[in-house]
Amino acid sequence: MGQGWRGAGGTPGKRTGGSWYLLVTLLLCGFWKAHSQTDDGKSVYFWETGPWGRCMGSDCGPGGSQSRAVWCAHVDGWTTLHTNCDQAQRPSNQRNCFRVCDWHKDLYDWQLGAWNECVPVSARTFGAARQFMCSGGEEGIQTREVGCTLKADGSPAEDAICEYFEPKPRLEQACLIPCPQDCVVTEYSPWTSCSKTCGTGLRNRVRSVLVPPLFGGAGCPNLTEFQSCKPGACVGPEGLYSLRVGPWTPCVLPQTRTARQAKRRKGKGQGLRERGGVKDPETRELIQKKRSRNRLNRQESPFWDIQVGYQTREVACIHRNGSRVGRNLCIPRELPLTIQSCVLPKDCQVTEWTDWSSCSKACADPESPRGTRTRRRQVLQFSVGEGVECPVLEETESCEPPGGSVPPCASYTWRTTEWSDCRVDVLLSQQDRRRTNMTGLCGGGLQTREVYCVQANAELLKYLNNLKEKDKAGQTQRQQKPSVPPLLSITFQITASRPMENQLCTGPIPNRSQLCQIPCPIDCEVSPWGAWGPCIFENCNDQTGKKGFKLRKRQITNEPTGGLGSCPHLVEAMPCDEPSCYKWQLVSLDRCIPDDGKQCGPGTQLPQVQCINSNGELVDRSLCSSSAVLEPVSCEVPCARDCVLSDWTPWSTCSQTCSSKTVEGKQMRTRSILAYNAGEGGSLCPNSSALQEVRNCNEHACIVYHWQTGPWGPCTEDPSTAPLNTSAGTRPAADAQGLCSMGVQTRKVMCVRVNVGQVPPKKCPEGPRPSTMRPCQLPCKKDCIVTPFSNWTECSVSCDSGGEAVKRKQSRRRLVIQTPSNGGQDCPLVLEEERDCEVPKVCPGFRWKTHKWRKCQLVPWVLRKETPGAQETCGPGLQTRAVSCRQLDGTQADISECLKSAKAMPAITQRCQLPCQDDCQLTNWSKFSSCTADCVGVRTRKRALIGRSKKKDKCKNTQMYPLSETQYCPCDKYNAQPVGKWSDCILPEGGRADGTAAMKVQGDVKECGQGYRYQAMVCYDQDSRLVETSRCNSHGYIEEACIIPCPSDCKLSEWSNWSRCSKSCGSGVKVRSKWLREKPYNGGRPCPKLDHINQAQVYEVVPCQSDCSQYVWVAEPWSVWKVSNVDLKENCGEGVQTRKVRCMLNTVDGPSEAVEDYLCDPEEMPLGARESRLPCPEDCVLNDWGTWSRCSMPCTRNNSHVRTAYALRYPGVGRQCPELSDREPCSLNLNCFNYFYNITDWSTCQLSPNAVCGSGIKTRMLDCVRSDGKSVDIKFCEELSLEKNWQMNVSCTVECPVNCQLSEWSVWSECSQTCGLDGKMQRQRSVVQASQGDGRPCPAQMEQWKPCPVRPCYRWQYSPWSECRVESVVCGHGTRYRNLSCFVSDGSGDGESSMVDEELCSSLELAVNGDKKIILKEACTLPCPGECYLMEWSDWSSCVNICVKGAGVDFGSVQVRSRAVLAQEPENLQLCPDQAWESQPCTGGECFEYKWFSSSRPNSSRPAVWCQRSDGLKVTGGCPAMNPPVDNSSCDPPCLMTKSFCSEAGMCMCEEGFTEVLSPAGQLDQCAPIPVLEIPTAGDKKGDVKTSRAINPTLPTTIQPGRTGRTWYLQPYGPDGKLKMWVYGVAAGAFVLLIFIVSMIYLACSACVKVHRSLKAQESDANGTAVWMGQNSHEMVYTCPQCQELAQSNSS
Fold first, then answer.
1. Interacting residues of 47 by C-beta distance below 8 A, sequence separation 6+
2. Which of 253-262, 728-737, 1670-1679 has the highest mean pLDDT?
């Protein structure tokens, strides 16, 4: 192998692109030549190069350089020394390059060429065979040129420059080549009648093309079949000759004027002698033309150059075989006209295009950056005759704003007014509105605002415009100091913007309503009154006088909103005597100490005292020095035989808080006998009255004073501060409260005596006197802010039937965007203005004005002198008229205006007839006479003979020339009847619910009550033609009252009263409920979630707290002993004591009144009776046991608690006192308890009583719970200082029940149809605010419709074309005509149209189905007898989609029409023209399939076989060519299975790629597809490129289908349809052999050639068929009927 070098990819640089194929071939053959050129050691070394590095350099552009690595490598891949490689072949390691910089991106770009034709992959693959059968399409590849170019001039550049910024676009892509589509035709029509009535003629039958041949498919077969016929022998000679008229020649001018002038000069002398009268017709004509031309030139429009010329045609006599013969052989008859006047055709002439107008977009707009510009041209001369019509006179193209410094476009944005006041009433249900006082509502509400559109950058554009104007003003003004700050520091005054049209704003519309919150006022809550305090001086620092006050107080438990001014008074005072600020408080009394040191008997008790102030606080003892010291209390220690009394009980609560003349306060205390005295020597027990003491208490009079305050006055300016309050013109901030300065508030304070009224202030103590003044903050004044007035609405100009402009009004408005408050400036009264529009003097509009027809111009006499009547000036001619453009008031206008806005231009030429002397001349018909009444009598019209016609007998023939016409008077009878459905029920316009007039958008628009529904009325005349409804005296509707039911909200009862707290101690719950009274209906507010048990009750449960010391047991003193074991002498022994125990309400002053026992804790109820032993004389007497001491924690039996007692009477000699203490072990939950806090669940969200929704509070309670589970007073847990870090209150929100809010109904739309029965008008509304919570849901009906008044549908419609008329001759070139008439219909597609008077269509544009070009006549050809000719075009076929059913392959849709050949003479068949077809693309075609069908034929063993389209149409062509029906005729039963065909052996077989599956009877059941193994070739690139279609379905192509690789068909199925055994073995080794198989297949198939099979069915010639080759090698088939009969007899 020779030396070489390889690139970075490792491929030798000298090898060709196909060397890899050779390499594979050599590998397969095991042949490899290591040294092909030399035997030295260097032959196996190559230069290797790395990739080029980045282009480096200091400058941008072509001055850069780049380098790469170069080394020497062995062919096996390892690197070696450079000396081993040939130095002469060493590649360069450096080269110049183009250094790309970022700014080059704007200079260079990829230039993309157009995609080339789609080429089959097989055509590009070496040795690949094209597939025989096409299914769906063949894969192909398209290529294109891609290169880097300089944007400025398109010159090519290096690809590396563009690749620096963007990867190179792909050079090829996959495409799809459709399969060939054969021509598909219909079945033959029935045979026509014989072309002759005698002799030998032809019958024809034709068919039309359904699908044209596409993509190289088979062409269309013959569309005509001929058959000879012979009705009978002709009697007499057969007509052989016909007079044929040729076409008119082009219009030319008559002979030149110079020739005629020469003729006139020749006869000049004679003309002078014969001055009396010129007899030469030509001279007379010339003089007449000159006069008329001079007169008409003054009226001629410069836009038309009308020249009247002449044209001729040829009349010849034709033999039946098509040859021309002498005219004398044709039957003598009047020859048709051979010369006529015509208008010389002139093409439309227009000026050059004007310059492009300036771009409509003169500003920068990112959303739509491009505008449009137009250019126009004017008509210099309109087309005349058959001249070319005028081209488009105006062109439009997109453009960008010119220049670099383009100002921004006006941008628009939404603005809003300030939110309205928050309203709660709009959230109330129907029930709440009826029962709730609307004042004082609070909580969640709704507020609204208006939304309007403004120009966002109006100030900026104004500023830029000012700068622009200053630049234009000149250098001097530019040097002056600008009065406006520079652009970068531009400032705008905050003003309201002008409202614009809402459709200018395109972004989302801001919310027009939102939820809001009115803070609920918190009522002041106070605690109960405390106990009256001691009598104290009003001021302890000034203790002069003897007057004092007793005070009682209460605290604020819930602070109100707005300060404490709304709370009731917190201090009450009661005057008293002997006040003192400090006093001694008795703590305890010492034990009774007998006098004189005795053991018993009278003694004293020393009091233990402490000094306290009026608040009960311990103070220094010296402060009580002025108070009397408590004296020792006398007492008695009973001796052994004395009576023993218990200690006095505490004084009871005073029965009255004060005393009056009738009521005094009393206190009581009692004691009981503990032991009786001995009979002798001991002190006696007192009687029962001495066991009770009563004293007066609260002896002060019931006179209570307190300070009463009035409400705080308004906040006013403080005169002591400077006036800072200014008017706030700007819109407030989010809090909407601007605070400008401090002010003061005052209130009235007075002294009030309870139950009396106001008293002098000195009666009340000064200490608790409230203040009368406090500082406050003054809110800023807010002025009303309104927007400027919007622009005036546009004045649309419309005209009435008389051409007068209709007067209209225009309006403008402004919006209040900030309402005034706090004394700000009020809003203006006028927010909307209206004025009359300016009415133009001339109603805008243009019309064509036609001028008088000019004189009828005949063919020049020189040309017509050979024709009959040439000596007279009479016959057919042409006349013209002028047309001009006028405004509606008749003034002259430019003709371009009428071209734009007027109707079609009237005709400027018409045929005319100058009567000859022998012609009868009559006046025009008069108008019909009037009828006296409808349906009664007749009406007539008349005309008369004029001139010499009055004397001619033939003109007096009233049969040919009637002079009067009579017809019955029109009988106009009209019949009205309803049509269509009833409309929706529609409420009268403007109905609104009460209370929402001030709201812009609200959900309470009145949407129920009585409305009306409408049904359209239709009016017909007596001929069942639709007429205006006014003819039936109807306004177009039947109106009927209807009811839209009003929504009814869910109705519940009022809340019940709160139940009592479920616990008397600690936290419980209290409940209240509502009951369902009425369910919602008609879209009313839904009910809240009801009780799940009975679905009828709503509960509200909240926690509550009961004071454990609210109710207490109160025990009276023990009764006297009832001794059961009586020692009458000693009065002692066992006995029983009882006492009364009551449950009483506890107050600050102690237990006050008895209540039911169940309110007190039964576990704590004291004993009502006790058994004990009454001490006998000399016995020790103890007082009652004291309370048990508290058990120390933890509660264990090792701990114990004690109680003690002491001896009231010591025992006699020899007797002992019992134990003075009692000990008991501590036992958990018996006498020892643990305590802990318990937190309740959160309550439901609690709102203010006046709130519907919004912010509320959830609460929970803290309980103290004993270890046995019993709730106890909270003080037990507080004494233990247990940790409590729970949050007891938390804010919450109750969702507001927002009703669905709808916009107002839009205006009624235009009628959906301009006429007819089915027109509808619609209006819509939208959801402005969706319903929330339990609000009323949105109604389902968001659209309403009502019928339009029925209007007749008038339209211009052509009549059918007439037969081809060739005047009085038999055949040739003639004309066919049609009329343009006015028709009326009801607008429905299936309704019939009726012709009416043309006046009813006068307001319509002269157009038929949108086509303004009205064609009422056209040239046609009437075939001569014996002539072979083309039929008229068939109708366009239905739209057919070129596709593959089920494969998702679509090549577009097409429709076709065709012309078949008709022949009349057998001998003229060779002269027949070619049949023709033409196609056009269409949309919405259907995808069809084509299949073979067969059925048995009567009296025949062969079945009938035909091709049928999937819509049931029998066709020729389209079915698969693999199984032609001719072959199937030999298979019985025929092969009708898909992909089957009849073999030569007469058996049904499957096509290639399918295997036969047989039925149990051995017949073909189905053709199963064989699994396809598709092996891609090296050139197959369809995997990484996208697929496209490159073929237009309407353009035929010769590209044949193909595949990118070979497809092998394996047959794994046996005849029974089951897999063969070899499939399992092959599957195991398939993967291992895959690579080897690929290479072998490629080598084996490279020499393969395509196999082409074609089967063509040809019928036997025995049936008498002759075939000619016509023009363009077109086949003509002729069938001889006699030959057919002969063939049938031979076969039989």
1. 4, 5, 6, 70, 71, 72, 73, 85, 86, 89, 90, 91
2. 253-262
Closest of 926, 947, 928 to residue 937, by C-alpha: 928
Nearest CA to 1597 out of 216, 482, 528, 599 is that of 216
For residue 298, give Cα distances in angstroms to 291, 294, 610, 661. Answer: 12, 7, 141, 135
The whole-chain average pLDDT of the chain stands at 78
CA distance 1326 to 1445: 45
Residue 1310: which residues within 8 A CB-CB, separation 6 or more?
Answer: 1321
CA-to-CA separations, 627 to 538, 624, 1398, in angstroms, rounded: 17, 5, 129
Tokens of 327: 């005219």
One-letter amino acid for residue 31 of the chain: F
Helix (H, G, I), strand (E, B) or coil at 312: strand
CB neighbours of 1085 closer than 8 A, spacing ≥ 6?
429, 430, 1047, 1049, 1050, 1297, 1299, 1334, 1335, 1336
- Give bridge partners of residue 573 from the DSSP assignment: 551, 705
Buried b (16+ CB within 10 A) or exposed e, 980-1014: beebbbbbeeeeeeeebeebbbbbbbebbeebebb
- Residue 1164 is predicted with a pLDDT of 83
Return the number of other C-beta atoms located less than 10 Å from residue 868's C-beta: 11
DSSP string of 59-92?
A: SSEEEEEEE--EEEEETTS-EE-GGGS-GGGPPP
1422, 1454 contact by CB (below 8 A): no
Cis before 1596 (ω within 30): no
**Of 795, 794, 838, 787, residue with least CA distance to 813:** 787
Distance between CA atoms of 132 and 122, rounded to whole angstroms? 12
3-class state of residue 265 by DSSP: helix
Q: Which residue has the higher pLDDT, 266 or 1660?
A: 266
Residue 1132 · residue 675 · CB < 8 Å: yes
pLDDT of 279: 52
Cis peptide upstream of residue 51 (ω within 30 degrees of 0): no
Please give the Cα distance from 1086 to 1079 (Å, whole number): 8
Mean local confidence (pLDDT), 710-726: 71
Q: How far apart are CA 529 and CA 517, in angstroms?
A: 36
Using CA atoms, how far apart are residues 70 and 72, in angstroms rounded to an integer? 7
Nearest to 399 by CA among 353, 433, 365: 365
| Span 505-521, pLDDT tens digits | 888 888 888 889 888 88
Do the Cβ atoms of 38 and 48 come closer than 8 Å? no
Neighbours of 83 (CB within 10 A): 9
- Quick one: DSSP state of residue 764? S
Collapsing DSSP states into helix, strand and coil, what is residue 1158? helix
Q: State how far the Cα of 658 lies from the Cα of 842, in Å rounded to an integer.
A: 103
Q: From its phi and psi, is residue 1632 left (phi > 0), alpha (psi between -120 and 50) or beta?
A: alpha
Q: Is 1328 helix (H, G, I), strand (E, B) or coil?
A: strand
Rounded to the nearest 5°, which phi and psi values hold at 57?
A: 160, 165
Q: Annotate 666-704 with three-state secondary structure.
A: EEEEECCEEECCCCCCCCCCCCHHHHEEEEEECCCECCC
Cβ(604)–Cβ(637) below 8 Å:
no
Q: What Cα–Cα distance (Å) separates residue 396 from each residue in 150, 896, 1332, 1343?
A: 30, 17, 52, 39
Q: How far is C-alpha 1153 from the chain's CA centre?
A: 73
Cα→Cα distances 272→268, 269, 275, 708, 731, Å: 6, 5, 5, 141, 105
User: How far is Cα 205 from Cα 203, in angstroms, rounded to an integer?
Assistant: 7
| CA 1428 – CA 648 distance, rounded (Å) | 154
Residue with tokens 């970075």: 8
Please give the DSSP secondary-structure letter assigned to residue 1544: T
Greater confidence, 444 or 731?
Answer: 444
